[in-house]
TrEMBL record, chain B:
<dbReference type="Pfam" id="PF00550">
    <property type="entry name" value="PP-binding"/>
</dbReference>
<keyword id="KW-0275">Fatty acid biosynthesis</keyword>
<dbReference type="InterPro" id="IPR009081">
    <property type="entry name" value="PP-bd_ACP"/>
</dbReference>
<feature type="modified residue" description="O-(pantetheine 4'-phosphoryl)serine">
    <location>
        <position position="40"/>
    </location>
</feature>
<keyword id="KW-0597">Phosphoprotein</keyword>
<keyword id="KW-0443">Lipid metabolism</keyword>
<feature type="domain" description="Carrier">
    <location>
        <begin position="5"/>
        <end position="80"/>
    </location>
</feature>
<dbReference type="GO" id="GO:0000036">
    <property type="term" value="F:acyl carrier activity"/>
</dbReference>
<dbReference type="InterPro" id="IPR036736">
    <property type="entry name" value="ACP-like_sf"/>
</dbReference>
<dbReference type="GO" id="GO:0009245">
    <property type="term" value="P:lipid A biosynthetic process"/>
</dbReference>
<keyword id="KW-0596">Phosphopantetheine</keyword>
<dbReference type="GO" id="GO:0005829">
    <property type="term" value="C:cytosol"/>
</dbReference>
<comment type="function">
    <text>Carrier of the growing fatty acid chain in fatty acid biosynthesis.</text>
</comment>
<protein>
    <recommendedName>
        <fullName>Acyl carrier protein</fullName>
    </recommendedName>
</protein>
<keyword id="KW-0276">Fatty acid metabolism</keyword>
<comment type="pathway">
    <text>Lipid metabolism; fatty acid biosynthesis.</text>
</comment>
<keyword id="KW-0444">Lipid biosynthesis</keyword>
Length: 412, 81
């Protein structure tokens, strides 16, 4: 597909393994887990008592008054957005025309901690103790709006919601907005802050979470035969997407090209992936087509690979179907083996990792791969160098509801 | 009973906590919205925090009459009496 080329000119992240992009990327390359035992009293009775909480609390970074008006998901989003905005070189008085700047910031679950804390206040102290800020804090578009207000985005502020595919869907939307000529610059990404008793209990009841409470760092083990479910993580990541023309005009540093995206739906089950992986296969094929790429171009896939027994196998099958005999050229990794599953932020954080893998030509390892399933795929159990020359990579994200979103990136 | 000076000091601490305005700037002649840049949602938070702190009730329809810090201090002082 031809059209406007879209490039990545800024990155921001706050994750279980680091408070910014540099520390997060170093930790991923070093194979460090950000998962640990939850030390909150509310976790004592849960089946899953481990998670990947952010390495740096957003309250330590943000202005105190600004932070108290945001849900934790909004705080994390703002931390990542401020880093990405600064990294892009667009911050400051000579910034872009606000009417050409948009935001697409996803969340899978929204301001659930604000919702639950205010419900506690309502029940314990009555309606007058519910915060007047509760609605702007808990609404799923709150983080996107906070970013839009901070950078002065007037070309539209969006919040794609598709469970654990949300982060990738926001990137797909950002590419579309630039290609349709609706914006020159789009801050895209995802945020999630759902480490709380209720979401953990609910995912636990779905039998989706690992119960390896005695070995938190070893619990998230995608593609390993001993995997028993995902580990929840929290955090946010933001990428600054820009039309190539706009980036070139200002001499911007370009990390990679956001070449294209593919979005499909399984129409199979609300929670289970299509066991044949057909929707995921189509998403990858569409991303390749939109990016003018062929399977032989793909040297790296940052897989969704959450460490669930069924999902990892279905995705492996989909990858083999999408790339055919060229699948041998692609080195796979699962960021979630170290960060846990950031739900609506997963696609965004993993896109940052995918972009950096192309930019630095190195793929972070998948940790805890001790007894791998034989899936016919080349999974990096240690960090792997990528070759010289033009390269492309895919980032996959899938979500409850049957959402499949693949994003293709290419070296700049 | 607390004096008006005590009430003003406690109210200033609440305004600083919620709106980030320096407590020293929370003086009787200052208007919450025009001078202290307190928005309508923060004003509701300040009112609720003041009710809790001073053990008074400030009905919603009274809040619009509390334009200045002095108005609020007088209201709380009277309501406590």
């Amino acid at each position: 597909m031809s059209g406007t080329r879209v490039v990545v000119t800024g990155l921001g992240a706050t994750s279980p393994v680091g408070g910014d992009v540099t520390s997060t990327w170093s930790a991923l390359l070093a194979g460090q887990s950000g998962v640990d035992t939850l030390k909150h009293a509310w976790a004592d009775e849960l089946g899953c008592q481990i998670a990947g909480e952010v390495a740096v609390d957003p309250g330590d970074v943000l202005d105190r008054v600004k932070a108290r008006r945001l849900d934790r998901s909004g705080q994390l989003a703002l931390v990542a957005a401020l880093e990405a905005w600064s990294d892009s070189g667009l911050a400051g008085t000579d910034g872009p025309d606000p009417e050409r700047v948009a935001v697409a910031m996803a969340s899978g679950i929204g301001g659930v901690q604000t919702l639950l804390n205010n419900y506690d206040s309502l029940r314990e102290k009555g309606p007058r103790r519910v915060s007047p800020l509760a609605i702007p804090m808990l609404m799923p578009n709150g983080p996107a709006a906070a970013i839009g207000l901070t950078v002065g985005a007037k070309a539209g502020v969006h919040t794609p919601v598709s469970a654990c595919a949300s982060g990738n869907e926001s990137i797909a939307l950002g590419i579309d907005l630039i290609r349709l000529g609706r914006a020159d610059v789009v801050l895209v990404g995802g945020t999630e802050a759902a480490i709380h008793a209720l979401p953990l209990a609910a995912f636990g009841q779905m039998q989706a979470l690992s119960k390896r409470n005695d070995e938190p760092q070893r619990a998230s083990r995608p593609w390993d035969k001993g995997r028993d479910g995902f580990v929840m993580g929290e955090g946010a990541a933001v990428l600054v997407l820009e039309s190539e023309q706009h980036a070139q005009a200002r001499g911007a540093r370009v990390y990679a090209e956001a070449a294209g995206a593919g979005i499909t739906a399984d129409s199979h089950d609300i929670a289970q992936p299509d066991p044949a992986g057909l929707g995921a296969t189509r998403a990858m094929r569409l991303a390749l087509r939109e990016g003018d790429l062929s399977p032989a171009d793909i040297v790296h896939i940052n897989a969704h690979a959450t460490s669930t027994p069924q999902g990892d196998v279905a995705e492996a099958q989909a990858i083999r179907q999408a790339l055919g005999s060229d699948v041998d050229r692609a080195v796979l990794t699962s960021t979630k083996s170290m960060t846990g599953h950031l739900l609506g932020a997963a696609g965004a954080l993993e896109s940052v990792a995918t972009v950096l893998a192309l930019h630095h030509r190195v793929v972070p390892p998948t940790i805890n791969l001790e007894d791998p399933e034989d899936l016919g795929l080349d999974v990096a159990s240690t960090r792997r160098e990528l070759p010289a020359g033009p390269l492309a990579a895919l980032n996959n994200s899938f979500g409850f509801g049957g959402h499949n979103v693949a994003v293709a990136f290419r070296t700049a | 009973m607390p004096t008006k000076t005590d009430i003003q000091a406690d109210l200033a601490a609440i305004v600083e906590e919620i709106a980030g305005v320096s407590a020293a700037d929370v003086q009787p002649d200052k208007e919450f919205i025009a001078d202290l840049d307190v928005d309508s949602l923060s004003m509701v938070e300040i009112v609720v925090a003041a009710e809790e702190k001073f053990g008074v009730r400030i009905p919603d329809d009274q809040v619009k009459n509390l334009r200045t810090v002095g108005d609020a201090v007088d209201y709380i002082d009277t309501a406590q009496a």
